[in-house]
Write a structure and sequence with these properties.
This protein is α/β, with parallel strands linked by helices and 348 residues long. 44% of the residues lie in helices and 12% in strands. The chain contains 14 helices and nine strands.
Length: 348
């Protein structure tokens, strides 16, 4: 285990910021908040602007617990990563964001105080699904609402490095062991029904959850059992959250879409009108109501993609489209009145 250990580390291999960034690039480290953007490229984009490093520990994904476990068990590793990110980009200030009222707050403040580190503060962010999106965090920290903003400019273009706390903890590991050793033993934290586990990035999704799998949480995709057997956790989409269907896959998806519609920022047409419409259509399909819900979904999903002010509508569309594909037998059964097929028999 590399991540779920504690204790600050000061003797690092790459004290020079240029060398550190090059080592991060060579490590292949990618963001662990869902976007999987190369961390070294982010550091390069922000370096020299001397603005702000934002560590995102909000964990807006309802099923995810990995960041909570990391911050509770290894806060110093995260703070090491924050300090290294500040060093790499030339920032003098950093913020660790967690949700309002988080039980982590006392422990984080104690850990920060025990380090004697200056320039890092802990900030509470509203408990909303979209509040932890990177542009929403930047807006909130600038005195605005915790809602996504239209990009560009992206936070990096404003001189702000926004990274998930696991990404920053992994950055600290790169600085300790070097790029080659990091690649050889790279792990990641994943939330599955049994809890949070640290696993090699080469672990197959099917080795963690059997059958059809929801990968990536609310904005992720359903994987068939066959695809789950062929997909490494390091290649799975979105946040590292995996779970089996909770009963009928279509009803499960309808419930998630209703949640996403309710949690939208209501700032643009796709969120205000598109998400409630596809949520209603999917609920009708899942409940086996006779009508044209399936035809409407097939028309609406392509229209919504790429038109939102942020990626929230795209995630909902991606989830819905994958459910129609993976649970195609159920779609037919629901639309013909035949009822659900058994989740235990789904193998494709």
């Amino acid at each position: 285990m590399r991540l779920l250990t504690d204790g600050p580390q000061t003797d690092l291999m790459f004290p020079d910021r240029v060398t550190l960034i090059q080592e991060v690039l060579a490590s292949g480290l990618r963001g662990r908040g869902g976007g999987r953007f190369p961390t070294g490229l982010k550091l390069q984009a922000v370096a020299g602007r001397k603005r702000l490093v934002v560590a995102n520990g909000c964990e807006g994904e309802p099923d995810s617990r990995k960041d909570h476990v990391l911050l509770s068990r290894s806060p110093h590793l995260v703070f090491d990563g924050i300090s290294l990110a500040c060093h790499a980009v030339g920032a003098t200030e950093a913020v660790l964001c967690v949700h309002e009222g988080s039980p982590l707050l006392p422990g984080l403040r104690y850990a920060l105080a025990s380090r004697g580190t200056t320039g890092i503060r802990v900030v509470e962010v509203p408990r909303r699904y979209v509040a932890s999106e990177e542009s929403a965090l930047v807006s909130f920290l600038g005195g605005g609402g915790a809602k996504p903003t239209v990009t560009p400019p992206r936070p990096t273009e404003r001189g702000m490095l926004v990274d998930n706390v696991e990404t920053l903890a992994q950055l600290a590991i790169v600085a300790r062991v070097g790029a080659r050793a990091f690649r050889d033993g790279e792990t990641m934290l994943v939330t599955v029904p049994s809890g949070v586990h640290e696993v090699p990035v080469t672990t197959r999704v099917a080795d963690l959850v059997a059958g059809p799998v929801l990968a990536g949480g609310c904005g992720g995709v359903w994987l068939s059992a066959a695809r789950a057997a062929d997909t490494a956790i390091g290649e799975a989409p979105g946040v590292a959250v995996l779970r089996a269907p909770r009963g009928c896959g279509l009803r499960d998806t309808a419930s998630i879409l209703a949640y996403l519609a309710a949690e939208s920022a209501r700032q643009c047409g796709p969120c205000m009108f598109g998400l409630p419409a596809i949520a209603a259509d999917f609920a009708e399909l899942a409940n086996g109501v006779a009508g044209q819900a399936l035809d409407r979904l097939r028309r609406r999903l392509p229209v919504i993609t790429g038109r939102g002010a942020c990626a929230h509508p795209d995630g909902a569309v991606r989830l819905a489209a994958s459910a129609l594909d993976v649970f195609a037998a159920d779609v037919t059964a629901h639309t013909t009145g035949a009822g659900c097929t058994s989740t235990t028999r789904r193998t494709a």
